[in-house]
Hints:
Blueprint: E1 4-7, E2 10-13, H1 24-28, E3 31-39, E4 42-43, H2 46-60, H3 68-81, E5 87-94, E6 112-119, H4 122-131, E7 133-139, H5 154-165, E8 170-174, E9 180-183, E10 187-191, E11 197-199, H6 210-222, E12 226-228, H7 233-238, E13 241-246, E14 250-257, E15 260-261, H8 269-281
Parallel strand pairs: 7-8, 7-14, 11-12
Antiparallel strand pairs: 1-2, 1-6, 3-4, 3-5, 5-6, 8-9, 10-11, 10-13, 13-14, 14-15
Amino acid sequence: MSRIAYVNGQYVPHAHAMIGIExxxxxxxxxxxxxxxxxxxxxxxxxxxxxxxxxSLSELRIGHPMSPAALGMVMRETIRRNRVRDGIxxxxxxxxxxxxxxxxxxxxxxxxxxxxxxSHNNARNEKAAEAGIAVVTMPDIRWQRVDIKSVALLPNVLxxxxxxxxxxxxxxxVDGEGRVTEGxxxxxxxxxxxxxxxxxxxxxxxxxxITRSVVLDLIAREGLGFExxxxxxxxxxxxREAFVTSASQLxxxxxxxxxxPVGNGAPGLVASALRRDYHSQAEFI
Length: 285
Ligand code: PDD
């Protein structure tokens, strides 16, 4: 079965899914995106993802390609046409197509929109979570507006590649003061020796992860000890547990940082419990 993409008003097989060479996403990475989880054929946390998309668009002054209701329908139809039960839906909106020129194109230039969806292998993900992943730390060389979910991901690409070449699954990016900002495509967490969950506050060089926000609600619901503050690489080395959160990996235990085992080198109890309970807190509509 060929995969189907929604591109500027039409559902087309991927082989025929085209965006113009003068699209500003292609020319300038002038666009934003979202990745939502699909579970049992349903969208997870759609409202939070749509609120973040709104914010990304308005921070960059890119127009809405369509109403939120229409976008919800397009996402569902893309999931349906691709017969995805468990996986992700990806959507990207750019400032549209116009003769290459740095300032914004004239008023009325239509934003471009692409929606795709793909299945993931549940069994493989669960196996990965049972084993946990390795991360490596490296300097965070990104721009200062990483709170916007922009498609300008070159530093993230380089970080992931470096992680892969070092045998790790994720890169943890580190600010000038030796504190972890976040993963190349996830938010970073530790559990201290005293059992306190720690993650970096918003507005200090991280993307406001939707999975992060749902995990925060879960932590509050369960009454777990929590501190929202930056943590250093050294603290992470000494942590009892570590994990990352993202829509595609959910809560993924980290068992090794820069080649050193975290805790006893196996996925921690807190991370595993948060993963197990995640969908009891997530919203399905
Ligand atoms: N990445 N931080 C960064 C830099 C990210 O790229 C992501 C998500 C997150 C976690 O956000 P959320 O919980 O909303 O997925 C944090 C997506 C999954 C991606 O680029 O594929």
